[in-house]
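Why Glycosyl transferase family protein? Reviewers of the renewal asked for a concrete example.
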Amino acid sequence: MRSRPLSPLADELALMPDAPAAPHGVPLQPERVDADYDELVAFHGIERERLVLIHPGSHGAAPAWPVERYAEVADQLAADGWQIAIVGDALEPERTGAVLGAMQTAALFLAGTMSPETLTRLIGDARLVLSDDAATPSPVAAARALGTPQIALDERHGDTSSEAVALDARAALARVGTAHPGDPFTLHTPALHEAT
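Here is what the prediction returned.
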């Protein structure tokens, strides 16, 4: 018998550019953003109290930090029990995918899977955002506007070590009263049921 996902969101999560789903630049309705966001959270098992977003993309000409260092920081935070989600534009799959590929631990790969409005909601609920740049628009700029702790790597020396960034990330997460690491993160796989 065939298995099927519990949610139709699986069909909608194909990689696509991060762009509003509404035609002609009309913003999505708040109810639709809420529904899309709730479905994304449920489908991926996102735990907002321990969510760390990694955005390795850059709005500048060249990314500021190597993907291997992103992976090292993500692995260290995942080992501490933080849920890691890689976000970014579907137009940069080699960079976002390279971070996931270089990691030794599990992470959610959400690059290109949501509208900018839904990403903004996710940033607002995250406990930390780690990204290459703070240019507007960027996840770091959104995090600053929403009060989400963030680390902008373009504001640091280019040779900043992954250990130094992981230490800063741990310190930032320790200051967030609603942030709670759990057991080392294991990837949530949506349940599939087999018809009998």
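The first strand starts at residue 3 and ends at 5. This is the kind of structural detail the renewal will allow us to pursue systematically.
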